[in-house]
Amino acid sequence: MPKTKKSKDENNEEFSDEDLKEAEAESNDNSKEAKSVEDKKKKLLEKAAKLKEKLSVESPSTEELKEQVKAKKKSEMLVPLEEYVKAGIYLGTKVVTPDMRQYVYRRRADGLAIFNTDIIDEKLKEGVEFLSKFKPEDVILVCKRQAGWKVAEKFSELTGVRVFAKKYPAGILTNTDLPNFFENELTIVTDQWIDKNALNDTLKVGKKVLMVCDTNNFSKGADQIIIGNNKSPKSLGIIFYLLARGYMKALGKDTSKVPDLEWWTGEIEEKGAKKGAEKGV
Length: 281
Known about the structure:
Helices cover 48% and strands 12% of the residues.
């Protein structure tokens, strides 16, 4: 039997040729494996670089995404944002109650609180949806503020909802002995402060309340609120315009009878007065 040739390493340990060949083969295998891992790593890095490049070309930046979201919100608004701004619906008061603080976007230099217009639009949509659950004969609208008389009465004329535009007869919902007593299911309150008698009566008999709230209003007792300036004719005009249009659509009524927004905000009258002044009338 042939002798196996022995070799010594630096520690003077002996190895046979077979041991050396086995070690060399293992080293080669490890080298191949390492090379294979490096190749895979290189390919993955190249793939990641290509994907990153593709995403940077195809995907919009954060700013672009923000602009796209803004554009989508604008396109889904009940009216263009410019109409809300022109009507001054976003202008609150210098007083902000705890109930309304969450809807305020900022304060102007003069101290007026500014409503978030996106939330104004959302609350109006919710208001229309809430109102649409009730029949016209089960709803009353109360608007003691003179700035809203004209549009409140037009809303009543179009929808069939009973309106108390100047004075609300106290007890009409609670005192069964009154000759004009009647029961309703929903009361629309234009301002919690000046329409408090109607609000209190409604709460006494346990009926629902849809309330228009400015920054100085408390929303206690309301089942649904609409936020916005409830002191300006233009602002109340756009609110009742959108309520009338949305409610009539929900009832299946002809919305073509609803006057254009310019009528509700008084812009038609302003234009007529301006033309008259120009002609010297």
